[in-house]
Amino acid sequence: MARAALRLVELPRWPIKRMLRLEEALVRHEPGNWCLITALPPQQPTVVVGLGGKPERLLDAGELQKRPVPVIRRFTGGGTVVVNGGVVVTSLIVDKGCEACAPFPRDIMKWTEGIYRDAFSQMIDSTQFALRDHDYVFQDRKVGGNAQSIVKDKWIHHTSFLWDFDEADMRYLTLPEKRPEYRGDRSHDDFLAKLGALSGVDAGEGALKLASGLFDSLGAAFDVERGSLSELEAVEARHSSGGWRPVDFPPSGG
Questions:
Q1: CB–CB of 218/224 below 8 Å?
Q2: Which of 17, 93, 118, 193 could potentially form a cystine with 217 if both were Cys, beta carbons 3.0 to 4.6 Å apart?
Q3: At residue 11, what are phi and psi to the nearest 5 degrees?
Q4: In what order do the strands lie in the sheet with 33-39?
Q5: Can you give the pTM of this predicted structure?
Q6: Residue 166's CB: how many other CB atoms inside 10 A?
Q7: Closest CA to 82 of 168, 201, 178, 183
């Protein structure tokens, strides 16, 4: 039996709102399997909250009042992340009928763990790369956060890889009440690691290297081909909303 096709597209530095809008359009409305990769553009930091996240428990209202930045809610689940030009975002959008893995949250994450470990093998010591709880880690420090959504015919696995970040921006985030056992009470400074420092390349070059690695690692399960930017721009033209919505936090006037 012929393997399913998957189109891999390296996006020029698309902002997070545009990326999220495209993701929801592909997972809910468009056919086929996709892998998208972009290094976010240099920009004002944006705080992205998961679908079920409670900003009042996850974010430091005082810090946001001192240094206001946009807060948005994405259409997928998962945790809270501060994104800027040091983040590489990847998305795997796959038909439920694909034989690569079962369409259930833990099955998807265990499968993607192997895919990303292989894809990173030319940049870092990938034997130290693993899935811990819902995070990708290098040794015991988080390098990537994940979000997922499983709908009628497809699933999406969205990852924010921390290539670089400003430690001050982590002050927007509180220590979550519910957190992985491996994290314990560690602060963000002790809990997070920068893939830029580990790999020796910046986010732009890292996105290119990761795309090349994913082209190979996904080839074990799919007939991988390079998709075109024009295809995705046509998808955008058909679906001009969705993917995220603004969050009023701290509440206006509050």
A1: yes
A2: 118
A3: -90, 140
A4: 129-132, 135-138, 141-150, 154-162, 87-95, 33-39, 5-10, 223-226
A5: 0.95
A6: 11
A7: 168
Distance in angstroms (rounded) separating the CA atoms of residues 126 and 112: 14
Q: Any idea where the domains of the chain sit in the sequence?
A: 5-240
Could you tell me the end-to-end alpha-carbon distance of the chain, in angstroms, rounded to an integer?
60
Distance between CA atoms of residues 8 and 16, nearest Å: 18
- The CA distance from 209 to 39, in Å, is 11
For residue 246, give both structure tokens.
């603004």
**CA pair distance 163, 143, nearest whole angstrom:** 8
Amino acid at 166: D
Tell me the residue ranges of DSSP E strands in 113-214.
129-132, 135-138, 141-150, 154-162
Which CATH code for domain 5-240? 3.30.930.10
Q: Which residues contact 145 (CB under 8 A, 6 or more apart)?
A: 78, 79, 81, 134, 135, 136, 159, 160, 162
What are residue 74's DSSP bridge partners?
244
Tokens representing 68 are 């206001």
What is the per-residue pLDDT across 51-104, written as a single tens digit (0 to 9) for each?
999 999 999 999 999 999 999 999 999 999 999 999 999 999 999 998 889 999
Q: What is d(CA 191, CA 210) in angstroms, rounded to the nearest whole number?
A: 23
Whether residue 8 contacts residue 227, with contact meaning beta carbons closer than 8 Å, is answered with yes
Q: Token pair of 214, please? A: 């994913």
